[in-house]
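Continuing the batch. This is chain 6 of the set; chains 1 through 5 are on the previous pages. Same settings as before, nothing changed between runs. Recording input and output for traceability.
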Amino acid sequence: MLFLDEPTGDLDSKNSKIVLDILMRLNEYDKITLIMVTHDVNLKFYSHRVLKVLDGKIIGEELIDV
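Output for chain 6:
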């Protein structure tokens, strides 16, 4: 299991894609579960499930069709 806090927060779009591609390979081929916290809503397309949190409580869930 790999915990990620804003993994692309300070990266430009080119390097963000490189990092995300590496993370997706870790998930798909090495079967590593990724738990990512981000404010970038576009990263949801790299996930299977999105939890929305407000004041420390889960307020929503979205399943992403991959």
